[in-house]
Specification:
The protein has about 260 residues and is an alpha+beta fold. About 50% of the residues lie in helices and about 10% in strands. α5 crosses α7 (about 200-210). The longest helix has about 60 residues, at about 30-90.
């Protein structure tokens, strides 16, 4: 047995090469490495988006706070003006007649038994399909005629700012993709009413209470309020409010009635 002589190569080195094991493949598959890389990129993108969103939210909170402050000043100025006008009228021996109400809150107080088709249609237009449902209504000639037709089945009146705020904060739900969603975040309001300039719940309250230019969009966004039966019960549903009953126009007395049901 003869060995071929290789210049500059030792016999032991050749033996080691022969005994050496083949190179091992990596333990982690290439697909898994790619998946990890994609996940790291996605994580970095999400972190960047979260920082930007946090910055936007901070700026938006400042805008919302300024708007809320301006609304408070507006409400207080209106209240002071009314007090001043009453005092001036009294001073000159006259009576102060407040302007006609532009907003009403309507509550259905009777069920479905014996409802005529015309009244049923009016109740559907007012979105009062269940007993103790309530909605805001803009008062004009057409809406007053509708309230007159359905009067034996509803109680209505003129809500104040406190009542509007309590209703929206406590029982306010939005109509989002035909579903009843609780108004737990200003982002929900901005997403659906942002094009109307309503970006937070205080904007929504202001638009409803003052019957602003976007009242219709804001009111349609609100799901009809589902109120409880009034604490202490009702007096007599078959009689008008002025006769000691329940149905009909209560004017500012609707605020006490709503608080019994809210």
């Amino acid at each position: 047995l003869s060995f071929v002589e290789f210049p500059d190569v030792s016999f032991s080195f050749l033996c080691n090469m022969a005994d050496a094991e083949p190179a091992k493949l990596p333990k982690v598959p290439e697909s898994l490495l790619k998946k990890r890389k994609r996940f790291e990129q996605l994580k970095a993108q999400r972190a960047k988006a979260a920082i930007l969103q946090k910055k936007k939210n901070k700026e938006k909170r400042k805008i919302i706070f300024k708007r809320a402050e301006s609304y408070v000043r507006e409400y207080r100025r209106k209240e002071r003006d009314e007090i001043r006008l009453k005092r001036e009228a009294k001073k000159h021996g006259n009576f102060y007649v407040p302007p006609e109400a532009k907003l009403a809150f309507v509550v259905r107080i009777r069920g479905i038994n014996g409802v005529s088709p015309k009244v049923r249609k009016v109740l559907q237009l007012l979105r009062l399909r269940q007993i103790f449902n309530g909605t805001f209504v803009k008062l004009n000639k057409a809406s007053l005629n509708m309230l007159k037709i359905a009067e034996p089945y509803i109680a209505w009146g003129y809500p104040n700012l406190k009542t509007v705020r309590e209703l929206i904060y406590k029982r306010g739900y939005g109509k989002i993709q035909k579903r009843r969603i609780a108004l737990t975040d200003n982002a929900l309001i901005e997403k659906n009413l942002g094009k109307s300039g309503v970006i937070c719940i205080e904007d929504l309250i202001h638009e409803i209470f003052t019957v602003g230019p976007n009242f219709r969009a804001a009111n349609n966004f609100l799901w009809p309020f589902k109120l409880s039966s009034p604490r202490g019960g009702m007096r007599k549903k078959g009689n008008h409010f002025v006769e000691g009953g329940d149905f009909g126009n209560r004017e500012d007395k609707i605020n006490c009635f709503i608080r019994q049901m809210n």
